[in-house]
Specification:
Strands 2-3-1-4-5-6 form a 6-stranded mixed beta sheet, with helices on both faces. Helix 4 crosses helix 6. It has a single domain (about 5-255), classed as Rossmann fold. About 45% of the residues lie in helices and about 15% in strands. It is globular. The two termini are about 20 Å apart. The protein has helices at about 15-25, 35-40, 45-55, 70-85, 90, 110-120, 140-145, 160-170, 170-180, 195-215, 230-235, and strands at about 5-10, 35, 125-130, 150-160, 240-245, 250-255. By secondary structure, it is of the alpha/beta class. The model has no long low-confidence stretch (mean pLDDT about 90). The protein contains 11 helices and 6 strands. The longest helix is centred in the C-terminal third of the chain and has 20 residues, at about 195-215.
Length: about 260
Amino acid sequence: MKPTLVITMGATGSGKSKLAKKMIELLGLNKSRFFLIDDYVENDPSYKKSIKKFTQRKNSRSKLRKPSKKTLKYFEKSYFKSRNKGCQVGLKKKSIPKKKCIDLDADGCNRLMDIELNSAILSGENIIFETTGGYYPKWIIKVINKCSNHNIVIAGLKVSLKNLIKRNTRRSIDGFDLFIKDMTGPAFRLPDITEKALLTQTKNLNKTLKGIVMNGCIKSNKKNKKNKKNIEYCSKYSIDRLIIFDNNTNMRVIHDSN
């Protein structure tokens, strides 16, 4: 049986972790490997040190309720510092793979994830790769075509802006409380969850999902394949299946290309 790559797409706080479990159940996948860059960053010692420093500030918890630009900037700087330069402990334990499916030009946590993703692809493991769905992920489909024969499934998650705002309100507070109780665990993030940012994510996700359907990116759907613009959208990097869920109340399928 061919292994499967599931690319999940959803805005911050839409329920991508729940979606991943749903896809594993729906497709009958065993021993799937999860890849999300945030997991690497949140477990990086340098990031945890930076967030611990923030929690020791006066009124740090209350600052998460309606974060100022200064607070958002602190978390953004800490996040990208670890993403681009962190995870050094993990990297020391890794050797450069002989076969490179992925360009290993990045550094930090990005590099560590790329090395482990490269290994999972070559090993033929089932893979869950989380994204916000801001664009069509040709790069990873290209990698799969180069090194493996995975089935490729994209799973999109639609949630209203109102519900996204509501769900994101307490995420950082809950993360703060968990981190304070046990600082050996992952540190929490504070992404930009303003209404403007969530609206942008939602619009980009909708555009990507619509583009997949309208531009003939699903192998069983040859619609508009001869249109030059459409060919450029997904090129020869098509997928096997697209499933879209609504997660405003109970998660349910609202579109399945099969």
